[in-house]
Amino acid sequence: MSKVESITLPVKRIYKQSAAMLVQSLLPVLFLVGTLLVHIGLPNKQMVGSTGAYTVLLTAVLLVYSGWFVLSIQSSNIQKILLHQAPISALFIVIFLVWEVLTLKFNILPLPYFPSPVKILDAFVTDGAVIGISAAYSARLLVVGFGIGALAGVATGILMGWYQRFEYWINPFFRLIGPIPSTAWIPIVLVVFPSSFTASIFLLALATWFPVTVMTWSGISGINRSFFEVARTLGANERYLIWKVALPAALPHVFTGLFMGLGTSFVTLIVAEMLGVKAGLGWYIQWAQGWGEYYKLYAALLIMALLFSVIITILFKVKDRVLIWQKGLMKW
Question: pTM for this structure?
Answer without folding.
Answer: 0.77
